[in-house]
Structure formats: C-alpha cells, structure tokens
Write a structure and sequence with these properties.
mainly alpha
Length: about 180
C-alpha cells in the first residue's frame, strides 16, 4: 500500500478507536488492531500516540471547515454542520465530546469555539443589542448547535430531513430569549 494510503487508513482507524474511548482510554495497540497493522507501521507514520491523536483532530477540523466554512452563519450552516457530522460522526464526537475533556488537546476545541462564538456574535449583533445578553447568546448558540448534533448522532440520526430545522428552531429560541426584556 502506498504511504499516503496507509496513513489515511491509519487515521480512519484511529478516529474510530479514539471515538470509542477518548485519548486516555485508547492505546496504540487498539489503533493498530483497528487498522490491521503493527505498532511498527504506526510509528513509521506517527512519532507518538499524541502525534497520531493530534493528526486525527486536525483532519476532523479540516473536514468540518471544508463542509461548513469558517466565516459566516446563515440558513445553510446547520444543514451543512449536520451533513458533516453525519459523514464523520466519530470525528465530530472526538472534537466536541472527547477533545473538549482532554486538557492536552483542548486548544483544538477552544479554537473552534472561539471562531464559532465570533461568527455567532456577528450574526446575533443584527438582532440583539450590545451587552451581556448578546454575549450570552453568542456563546450559547454554538454550544447548543454542537450539543444538539451530538445528541442527534447518539440518538441514531433520527429524521435527517428535518433535523436541521429542529436544531435551527432551538437556536432561534436562544436568540429570542436573549432579545426578551
């Protein structure tokens, strides 16, 4: 197998392995078994377990950015986010469930959350006056979206044709709550 293909195979297997138990609970033997390669092959592609995990997270970030974009929120954002999560549920779970709880990799999720909050801030600034409630909504909207999609994945991806609408209604409820006086 060509080097690039082998690396991709290992990243796919590592994503599945790490998604089952997170970084700490997953050993390189687990990844090697999932990829059907030896540990020696793993070390030919990655210097360490941390290096492999970082590559898995980076790959999940790239896929998410390619699917959703990274600069605006509009009516296509939630459907795009759902499609990305549905196409790579293990990668999505790694980013928003596992990496968020792993201090040595939290920087990846913090960068996503910071960018998501900035995008939400621009979006809600059109309808919520400056102040604490706008700040609250800008922080809560991305959190609600990510958690709603993880719950959707965990529930077996029910009603995929209408899931984006349901999640959008929850997000609009957050915005509406921030507008109330």
């Amino acid at each position: 197998m060509a080097r690039a293909q082998r690396r991709a195979q290992i990243l796919e297997a590592a994503t599945r392995s790490f998604a089952r138990g997170g970084y700490r609970a997953t050993g390189l033997d687990d990844v090697a078994a999932e990829a059907e390669v030896s540990r020696m092959i793993l070390y030919q592609h990655f210097d360490s377990k941390a290096d492999l995990y970082r590559a898995v997270l980076d790959r999940a970030c790239v896929r998410l950015t390619e699917a959703v974009g990274d600069d605006d929120f509009d009516d296509t954002s939630i459907p795009a986010l759902l499609r990305a999560a549905g196409a790579d549920p293990d990668g999505f779970r790694l980013l928003f469930r596992h990496a968020a709880r792993e201090p040595e990799f939290r920087d990846v999720v913090d960068a996503i959350r910071t960018a998501s909050t900035e995008i939400a801030e621009r979006h809600v600034s059109e309808v919520i006056p400056e102040g604490r409630w706008r700040d609250w909504a800008a922080r809560l909207v991305p959190t609600v979206a990510h958690e709603a999609i993880i719950a959707w994945l965990d529930a077996g991806q029910p009603d995929p044709d209408h899931a984006a609408d349901r999640i959008s209604r929850v997000i609009h409820a957050v915005i509406q709550a921030a507008q109330s006086r």
